[in-house]
């Protein structure tokens, strides 16, 4: 059985302890990003299974039609819009789904918040260039952290904020707002109030048809001139071009980003990298050693179980599709 693992940008998968679970399989690993259909077909054509790293590769019907040997897609973490689930079921390709963890993305979000508010990167860069105290930052105590999406990650951020003497303001669906209120946290009366009052506003939503483009330019320019907008979830939650326009307008005054409309970002002229008031990290939210061992460990276990005749964690067909 042949297994293909694409998009191992950092050359780390084969060094994980859990990689030994694939010792009985032929495994081919690719370390770059490929978007061309023909390239993907060439790489995947002989694969019985794919192990996908989060959402780095898109699997659609046109690609599946040219992969006659493919039997399984084993996904690290949860399946999202990068896989055409209905097409997989029509073509007899099973999808084994993993689980996620809020720990690493919550920690990364908080790291970006602290670094952006204190202006750490330009200060450190200035020191390395022989300059001393080139800027001045802002502390977090007394400020309001706006959290849009009160799931596992949002709740962890709320705890971090309270430890730093911040006020917490939550926005989201009714159940999210209710849960926040039951915990004694602030709940915005409206989306407008949420954007106006937040000194730091962090998105923690899953990307789907309902949430795509949910944040508009008109929302962003309601923010304070010294506010920080943070997105470690998905770039597509924000309307195309809206954040760049808002930052150029001056509201919010700064942003911290871990996600982008096209990844990987390898163009030094990408708009966010050219703005002094934007802090960028290369989609590191879930990228840390313990998380990788968990994500890939479960993906490999799901794969071994499937080809051992005892499939587990197989995604059900979409509503209206036959099994």
Features:
single chain, alpha/beta, five-stranded parallel β-sheet, 12 strands, globular
What does this structure look like?
The protein is an alpha/beta fold and 323 residues long. The protein is built from 11 helices and 12 strands. The protein has helices at 37-44, 61-64, 85-90, 103-118, 120-128, 152-163, 174-182, 191-197, 217-220, 242-249, 289-307, and strands spanning 2-5, 26-29, 49-52, 72-75, 94-96, 144-148, 167-171, 186-187, 200-203, 228-231, 254-257, 278-280. It has a 7-stranded parallel beta sheet with strand order 8-7-6-9-10-11-12, sandwiched between helices. Strand 4 (72-75), helix 3 (85-90) and strand 5 form a beta-alpha-beta unit. Helix 4 (103-118) crosses helix 6 (152-163). The chain is globular. The model has no long low-confidence stretch (mean pLDDT 95).
């Amino acid at each position: 059985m042949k297994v293909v693992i694409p998009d191992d940008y950092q050359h780390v998968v084969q060094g994980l302890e859990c990689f030994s679970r694939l010792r009985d399989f032929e495994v081919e690993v690719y370390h770059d990003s490929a978007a061309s259909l023909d390239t993907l077909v060439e790489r995947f054509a002989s694969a019985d299974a794919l192990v996908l790293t989060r959402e780095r590769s898109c699997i659609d019907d046109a690609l599946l039609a040219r992969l006659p040997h493919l039997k399984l897609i084993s996904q690290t973490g949860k399946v999202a819009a990068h896989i055409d689930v209905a097409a997989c079921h029509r073509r007899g390709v099973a999808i084994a789904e993993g689980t996620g963890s809020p720990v690493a993305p919550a920690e990364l979000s908080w790291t970006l918040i602290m670094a952006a508010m204190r202006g750490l990167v330009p200060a450190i860069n200035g020191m390395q260039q022989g300059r001393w105290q080139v800027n001045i930052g802002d502390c977090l105590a007394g400020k309001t952290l706006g959290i849009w999406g009160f799931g596992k990650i949002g709740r962890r951020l709320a705890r971090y904020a309270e430890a730093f003497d911040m006020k917490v303001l939550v926005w989201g669906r009714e159940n999210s707002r209710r849960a926040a209120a039951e915990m004694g946290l602030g709940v915005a009366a409206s989306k407008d109030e949420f954007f106006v009052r937040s000194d730091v506003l962090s998105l923690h939503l899953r990307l789907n048809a309902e949430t795509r483009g949910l944040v508009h330019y008109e929302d962003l320019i309601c923010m304070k001139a010294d506010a920080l907008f943070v997105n470690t979830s998905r770039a597509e939650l924000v309307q195309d071009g809206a954040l760049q326009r808002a930052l150029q307008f001056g509201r919010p005054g700064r942003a911290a980003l871990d996600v982008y409309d096209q990844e990987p970002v390898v163009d030094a002229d990408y708009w966010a990298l050219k703005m002094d008031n934007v802090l960028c990290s290369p989609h590191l939210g879930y990228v840390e050693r313990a998380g990788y061992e968990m994500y890939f460990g479960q993906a490999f276990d799901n794969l071994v179980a499937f080809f051992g005749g005892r499939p587990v964690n197989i995604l059900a067909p979409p509503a209206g599709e036959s099994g």
